[in-house]
Structure prediction request, 229 residues.
Amino acid sequence: MSKILIVEDEESIADLEKDYLELSGFEVEVKNTGNDGLERAMSDEFELIILDLMLPGVDGFEICKQVREKRDTPIIMVSAKKDDIDKIRGLGLGADDYMTKPFSPSELVARVKAHLSRYERLTASGRPDNEVIDIRGLKIDKTARRVWMNGEEKALTTKEFDLLTFLASNPNHVFSKEELFRNIWDMESVGDIATVTVHIKKIREKIEIDSSNPQYIETIWGVGYRFKI
Ligand code: CA
Prediction:
């Protein structure tokens, strides 16, 4: 159950917000002063904070600023004055939403739900995973540019890595040596395509158990190479 902090000095408003949120299944804690609100807002117990701007003691403005320095809990800032909302929005303090009082409690609940689900999506996805190719014991981490064979890391040169990754990213596709040379060496194929042969041989020595009987990079005689999947 998501826990929500309401920092609001007008008790009737705080009660109304609390009732509606509780009816929607949220757990709610209310603080009526800026100082109490700040102290609770800095804890990691809440999934979302509804923050009034004008408060006795520390104001919502300062609370928002201090919370943002430490954490990314969604904050919905509320104020009776539209001008204040515009001012705060302009300052870019990092509140996620702004509402002008009076607002309907159901509108507040809708926004709370929207921000919570957005935040959950963000934190669940987090940093994108590395792009990894994993085929029969051969693991290529394209993002980290590392290669493992049966759990043992293999040191590949830049071009060996590029060539292996290119082939493995296009499995079952036969490439001529010219095509591979153009793709990996990034220049017109006027260079020595024997370079490709040499690199394939080096890669096989590193990733194949028996490089004379390759399981990954197959030689297609008279044509080129293919990564078997
Ligand atoms: Ca107030």
Observations:
- Residues 3-126 form a domain with the Rossmann fold fold (CATH 3.40.50.2300).
- The chain has a mean pLDDT of 89.
- The first strand starts at residue 3 and ends at 7.
- The CA atoms of residues 88 and 156 lie 53 Å apart.
